[in-house]
């Protein structure tokens, strides 16, 4: 019997260190637990298996788990910890913090400025990529008219839209944002103003709309016509509120003035009379643009309508009138003063600086020096006004109209028309008139004679009625 296996050596055998092979095997750890695998000593003679089972060690949890984690996993674990600001009592914003540079949105024009027949109203200054990075202000983009309107505008209308846009944006006159569209009838003033309105509502140099609300003021007979024109050219893309009196007018106007954002109605069409009645409501908030149709109604700066419109909080004002000058220069001053307040000074200053000199120089008894002063002041006034007034005559339409053919067709009178004509010229009233004016053959007599013959021509329109009722012929002759 080996001494090491003797019963007297049992205590020493249990306290002795394990062999290297046994230590390496026992150091195996799986999921934090030591595997109970040991190398049993040589089986002693007469030793039962129950003794071996009692010497097995129970499973114990590993005290150090970092021994089996790689350096990379250790680094990832540290980086995954939430950030904690070292500043005491620091409260940051609620937004999450992201690494890297935030991606900026690239601003682009609403419509392509390089497409064929594009009407570009504003072109931003050219900048290099380095200048764009250093630029602290907003990036500017092109302003292009909607092709829906730009493709149907004639050359003079494109010029008019560009002129009005430059005026309402302060390009023509710095600090002034109004203009007068004074084209003659038939040149498309309404279409040009609708194009300007739609462009300002939809876009601007900064990539957003220039205005949010606009008011169209016109005579009551044209309120529905303006709404029809908007639907005709814009195909229902722009919603408008029509106001021409009514019991619920005050409530609708309050709704229009309070509206904001996308749900607001952008355009209000209202008559001059209704505007004057509800001026206190319309003066409560700012309006982006005001269009005044038949603007010559504002020729008197002393009436209530003029004062009500002047109190409107709108710096962009466009006035439409086919006849801006009707009687005198003071009325002309009222129109210019409405769109660009203070451009010509006050009424008394305008009278001293321009009106008195011009009227004195136009007098038949004026001297050469007075005529020279009048010419100089008239030229100065024209140079100022031409920056905010555009006027074209109807001669531009000759290139768009077909060739005119005039034909004279002679028609003989029917028997009943001949009878009416003879009864008319042989009547006592005609003979009396000829006798009175035969001695003095004036221009008035010519006009009266022509008007009498015209009455006979009008009788042709009632020929059908006369043929149905023969007695009517004698009645018409007796009335003349």
UniProtKB/TrEMBL annotation:
InterPro entries: Helicase_ATP-bd, P-loop_NTPase, SNF2-like_sf, SNF2_N, SNF2_RAD54_helicase_repair
One annotated GO molecular function: ATP binding
SMART domains according to UniProt: DEXDc
Start and end residues of each stretch annotated as Disordered: 1-23
Signal sequence region: none
Pfam families: SNF2-rel_dom
Entries under SUPFAM superfamilies matching the protein: P-loop containing nucleoside triphosphate hydrolases
Occurrences of domain Helicase ATP-binding (ranges): 170-342
GO cellular component: nucleus
GO process terms (BP): double-strand break repair via synthesis-dependent strand annealing; reciprocal meiotic recombination
PANTHER family on file: DNA EXCISION REPAIR PROTEIN ERCC-6-RELATED (PTHR45629:SF7), SNF2/RAD54 FAMILY MEMBER (PTHR45629)
Protein name per its UniProtKB record: Helicase ATP-binding domain-containing protein
């Amino acid at each position: 019997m080996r001494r090491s296996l003797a019963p007297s050596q049992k205590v020493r055998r249990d306290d002795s260190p394990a062999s290297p092979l046994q230590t390496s095997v026992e150091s195996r750890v799986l999921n934090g637990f030591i595997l109970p695998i040991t190398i049993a000593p040589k089986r002693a003679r007469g030793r039962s298996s129950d003794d071996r089972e009692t010497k097995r060690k129970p499973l114990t949890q590993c005290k150090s788990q970092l021994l089996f984690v790689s350096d990379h996993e250790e680094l990832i674990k540290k980086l995954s910890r939430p950030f904690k600001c070292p500043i005491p009592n620091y409260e940051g914003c609620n937004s999450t913090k992201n690494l890297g540079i935030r991606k900026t949105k690239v601003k682009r024009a609403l419509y392509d400025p390089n497409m064929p027949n594009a009407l570009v109203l504003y072109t931003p200054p050219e900048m290099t990529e380095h200048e764009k990075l250093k630029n602290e202000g907003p990036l500017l983009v092109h302003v292009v008219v909607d092709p829906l309107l730009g493709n149907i505008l004639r050359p003079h209308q494109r010029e008019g839209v560009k002129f009005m846009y430059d005026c309402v944006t302060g390009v023509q006159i710095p600090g002034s944002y109004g203009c007068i569209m004074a084209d003659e009838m038939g040149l498309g003033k309404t279409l040009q103003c609708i194009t300007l309105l739609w462009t300002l509502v939809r876009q601007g140099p900064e990539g957003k709309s220039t205005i949010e609300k606009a008011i169209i003021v016109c005579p009551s007979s044209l309120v529905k016509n303006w709404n029809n024109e908007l639907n005709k050219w814009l195909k229902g893309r722009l919603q408008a509120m029509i106001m021409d009196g009514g019991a619920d007018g005050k409530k609708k106007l309050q709704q229009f003035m309070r509206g904001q954002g996308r749900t607001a109605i952008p355009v209000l069409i209202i008559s001059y009379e209704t505007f004057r009645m509800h001026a206190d409501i319309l003066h409560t908030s700012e309006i982006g643009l005001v269009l005044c149709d038949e603007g010559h109604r504002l020729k008197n700066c002393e009436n209530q309508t003029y004062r009500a419109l002047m109190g409107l909080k709108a710096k962009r004002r466009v006035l439409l009138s086919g006849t801006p000058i009707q009687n005198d220069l003071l009325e002309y001053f009222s129109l210019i003063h409405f769109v660009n307040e203070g451009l010509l000074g006050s009424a008394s200053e305008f009278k001293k600086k321009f009106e008195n000199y011009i009227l004195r120089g136009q007098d038949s008894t004026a001297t050469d020096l007075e005529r020279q002063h009048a010419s100089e002041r008239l030229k100065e006034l024209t140079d100022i006004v031409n920056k905010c007034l555009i006027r074209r005559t109807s001669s531009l339409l000759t290139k768009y109209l077909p060739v005119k053919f005039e034909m004279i067709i002679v028609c003989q009178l029917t028997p009943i028309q001949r009878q009416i004509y003879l009864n008319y010229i042989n009547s006592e009233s005609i003979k009396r008139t000829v006798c009175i004016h035969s001695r003095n053959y004036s221009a008035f007599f010519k006009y009266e004679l022509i008007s009498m013959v015209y009455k006979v021509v009008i009788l042709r329109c009632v020929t059908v009625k006369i043929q149905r009722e023969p007695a009517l012929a004698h009645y018409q002759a007796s009335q003349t």
